[in-house]
Write a structure and sequence with these properties.
Layout: E1 4-7, H1 9-26, H2 30-48, E2 54-55, E3 61-66, E4 69-75, E5 79-87
Parallel strand pairs: 1-5
Antiparallel strand pairs: 2-3, 3-4, 4-5
Length: about 100
């Protein structure tokens, strides 16, 4: 059974920044819409197949690949909490995972 999906404030901000960047870069919404759809589909798979991604060094945090992006998430009893969306082409030192505490 699929779990409910909750996006943390950090994940929402990450997603917004990524989509805005590509909108400004391309001058149209098509690529941003494609990415938004890709993120939604990946998170839906995670909600259904909870252990789709691989474990990380952080307790209870897993990561799934979605194109060039890494989606960090935490599995809770009835919820999949998306913690962050990170462009894997960026410097990994800039990655911070704050996630809302439940």
């Amino acid at each position: 059974m699929a779990k409910r999906i909750v996006w943390s404030l950090q994940a929402k901000e990450d997603r917004r920044e990524i989509l805005e960047y590509w909108f400004k870069r391309t001058g149209n919404k098509k690529y941003s819409q494609k990415l938004a759809h890709q993120f939604r589909e990946t998170v839906k798979y995670i909600a259904t197949y909870n252990y789709l991604g691989r474990a990380t060094d952080m307790e209870d945090v897993r990561v799934a690949v979605s194109g060039h992006y890494l989606i960090f998430y935490r599995l809770l009893e009835k919820v999949v909490e998306v913690i962050s969306v990170f462009d894997s082409r960026r410097n990994p030192d800039t990655l911070t995972l704050k996630g809302d505490k439940k």
